[in-house]
Write a structure and sequence with these properties.
Radius of gyration: 21 Å
Low-confidence stretches: 1-29
Helix content: 55-70%
Structural class: alpha+beta
Strand order of the largest sheet: 1-2-4-3
Shape: elongated
Distance between the termini: 46 Å
Length: 177
C-alpha cells in the first residue's frame, strides 16, 4: 500500500509527460492563426542565434525552387516557408510547420538549382512524412521503461537519477554532434 501511494504521483507525472508529448493536430479551426503566431515565435527565437538574410537576390531563388517543388506535390503555395540563415554551415533543417531553413554556407557550395531542389525536397519530405511527430512518439515511448522503474522503486532518488542519466543517451542518434 505504501508503494502504491508513493508511486501514484510518479505514475500521474508519467501520464502527464507522455500526453504532453503528443503531437499537436495540424488541422482545425484557428490553426492558421496559431501557425502564424508559432512561426513568429520561432523566427524571434532563431534571430537570437542566427542572422536571417532577407536580401531578395538571395531568398528569391530559394523561394522560386521551393514553390516549384510544392506545386509539383500539389500542395498549396503557402505550405512551406523558406529562410536563409547567415552562417558558413553546410546544412539545412525544417520545422514541423513547414518552415525550411538553409544556411548560406550551403548555398555558396551549390553549383545549380537542381542541388538546391534536392536539399529543399529532402526537408519537405521530413515535413510530409511527419517525422517530428514520429520522433516525439519514440521519445515518449522510450521513457516508459525508466518511468516504470521509478514508479516500481517507489520513486526512490537513485531510480529517478538513473532515469535522468540514461534518457539522453537513448536519443543521441538524433544528434549531429
Amino acid at each position: 500500500s505504501e508503494v502504491r501511494v508513493a508511486g501514484f504521483p510518479a505514475a500521474f507525472a508519467a501520464v502527464l509527460i507522455i500526453s504532453g508529448c503528443a503531437p499537436v493536430p495540424v488541422s482545425g479551426t484557428g490553426r492558421g492563426q496559431e501557425r502564424i503566431i508559432e512561426r513568429g515565435r520561432m523566427i524571434r527565437a532563431f534571430s537570437g542565434e542566427f542572422r536571417f538574410i532577407w536580401d531578395p537576390e538571395v531568398i528569391a531563388p530559394v523561394n522560386r525552387v521551393g514553390l516549384t517543388l510544392s506545386r509539383a506535390l500539389g500542395a498549396p503555395d503557402n505550405s512551406f516557408h523558406y529562410y536563409v540563415l547567415d552562417s558558413p554551415m553546410v546544412n539545412a533543417f525544417t520545422s514541423p510547420l513547414g518552415d525550411i531553413f538553409i544556411f548560406s554556407g550551403m548555398l555558396v557550395k551549390m553549383r545549380n538549382s537542381s542541388e538546391l531542389a534536392g536539399v529543399l525536397a529532402h526537408e519537405i519530405a521530413h515535413v510530409r512524412a511527419d517525422h517530428f511527430a514520429k520522433q516525439q512518439r519514440k521519445a515518449a515511448l522510450s521513457n516508459i521503461p525508466g518511468l516504470m522503474a521509478a514508479i516500481l522503486s517507489g520513486g526512490g532518488p537513485r531510480a529517478i537519477a538513473s532515469v535522468i542519466a540514461v534518457a539522453p543517451s537513448l536519443h543521441l542518434h538524433w544528434s549531429r554532434e
